[in-house]
């Protein structure tokens, strides 16, 4: 049992609430630091243990993440809570390491075309960057986990269909350079459950004993079906955002991440206990509504409540 | 090959647009007859072939279905289009038979409690009623198909969890009394994909060569995931409503049927060709919006459009 398995046990599902990072990526107004801390604390009280908390990106361009260190500290103070922050270059990585965050996330595009257009570098260079991140991690005092997302892994806003063999080749490389986890991302919500299931199966095989994360967007309404397929094929880490907060830069008007609370319901219905109290979780949406009144929130559980006879789940 | 297989071929998926019946069940304002006819014709032009068109219920209580005969006639005039209408008592059945509708739908509740509370009769009496419907069908000139929905088949608004063995027992009885198809209905959207898959597998086994329909509501965001599970287990007839039109009498504020256009995208993504042009289908939502401006419409495809590189599907 290595440290990654303490945080992402292979015999249960870990659900990561990414609203504070991916959810806030495109919003026009954003919550105060105090509201972010209530958001984290209230979700923690509901049973959530994995949080993506923000990005170490230039604060001038992304002012919504200027207080990322405060959110990292809030989570570090909660027993058993685990925080993840995004860092895309060496400055960001050094800042992330200095913040003491428990996990650093990086990204490589699934297609060369998207890599060049979005990050102005090749996929090979992006993987070199992640290798360097792993070396800095190894040389650090607290040695955070490192995860690498393969963005556009199930469809690309530039070239359309993505060859799954390419994604599996990148997956293999990423585990080789030292990441603890690869996250297969359907960044633009192109995939259906068949494709997600097949790619997950391949990635799980490559990952061996290491975890595989599947990061889904609900752009075309397939989010929960895709999550179900990923679970069926052995993914045990799934991302979602409360209320499906967030948008997609490549699909204006589209929804963001798969709805976190519906993901909880899905997992429970499939016999994967999450330890999350759905009523308490849904109540946290009030913070998002009051801090970002113009952002659309989605989700079935919030509208309809739990089915009759469903036992309240222990936090 | 019997007639039911001409209409619901066992080697392909048939998607039924139920917006004109289930979608209109609870709306406050409803479309004009002319708008319903455009709705049908435009969906037909997009490639839709199966329509639930209305109910033979008392027009005083359900004025939205007063023009059901006109919609039946509109569909009968379109080559290869198939119309279904609901009829719950002998008067309704006789009116449905007289209308020449191609299929008559009836209902039995999965639980005794719901049957008594909702229809004021036992499930046994409901099945007797359906047996009588089949006899009237056999004695009729044009012999429409008969389908029987098992409402609350995956969870009951009165008792909560439903014993799948009871649903399978009812399924068996319904095929015995002569129905052409049983529709397993998650009327209140309680189920997840595991439960839907398991019940579908059992029903498909009982049905033998006859089709099984799965009728899902998206109340808790599981609609598409549940449809995917039903397809995986052999259901080849699925219901949905354009824009997810409709509500649920037992869950105020909840969404209605699973979103038809997202269902089309799901089927195509799983390799089940539907013959439906998604762009043309999504355009039909304009009729619903202009006729029922206060009704919420849902769906990912309508927000985001087709993924880049997706070929337009031939109607």
Automatic annotation (TrEMBL), chains A, B:
Keywords: Lyase, Metal-binding, Transferase. Its EC number is 4.1.3.4. The keyword Hydrolase does not apply. GO terms for molecular function: hydroxymethylglutaryl-CoA lyase activity. Residues 13-282 form the Pyruvate carboxyltransferase domain. Belongs to the alpha-IPM synthase/homocitrate synthase family. This is Hydroxymethylglutaryl-CoA lyase.
């Amino acid at each position: 049992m290595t440290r990654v398995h303490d945080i992402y046990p292979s015999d249960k599902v870990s659900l990561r609430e990414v609203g504070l990072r991916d959810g806030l990526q495109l919003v026009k107004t954003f919550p105060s630091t105090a509201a972010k801390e209530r958001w984290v604390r209230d979700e923690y009280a509901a049973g959530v243990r994995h949080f993506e908390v923000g990005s170490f990106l230039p604060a001038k361009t992304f002012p919504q993440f200027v207080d990322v260190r405060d959110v990292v500290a809030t989570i570090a103070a909660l027993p058993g809570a685990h925080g993840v922050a995004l860092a895309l270059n060496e400055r960001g990585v050094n800042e992330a390491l200095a913040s003491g965050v428990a996990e650093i996330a990086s990204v490589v595009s699934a297609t060369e075309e998207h890599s060049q257009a979005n990050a102005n570098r090749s996929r090979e260079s992006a993987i070199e960057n992640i290798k360097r991140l792993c070396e800095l991690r190894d040389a650090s005092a607290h040695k955070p986990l490192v995860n690498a997302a393969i963005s556009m892994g199930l469809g690309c806003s530039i070239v359309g269909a993505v060859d799954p063999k390419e994604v599996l080749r990148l997956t293999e490389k990423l585990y080789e350079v030292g990441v603890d986890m690869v996250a297969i991302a359907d960044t633009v919500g192109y995939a259906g459950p068949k494709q997600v299931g097949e790619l997950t199966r391949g990635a799980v095989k490559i990952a061996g004993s290491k975890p595989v994360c599947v990061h889904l967007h609900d752009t075309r309404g397939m989010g929960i079906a895709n999550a179900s397929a990923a679970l069926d094929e052995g993914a045990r880490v799934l991302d979602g955002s409360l209320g499906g907060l967030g948008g997609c830069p490549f699909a204006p008007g589209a929804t963001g991440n798969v709805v976190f609370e519906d993901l909880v319901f899905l997992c429970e219905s499939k016999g994967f206990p999450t330890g999350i109290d759905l009523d308490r979780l849904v109540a946290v949406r009030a913070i998002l509504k009051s801090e970002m009144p113009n952002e659309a929130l989605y989700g079935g559980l919030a509208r309809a409540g739990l089915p009759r006879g469903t036992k309240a789940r222990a936090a």
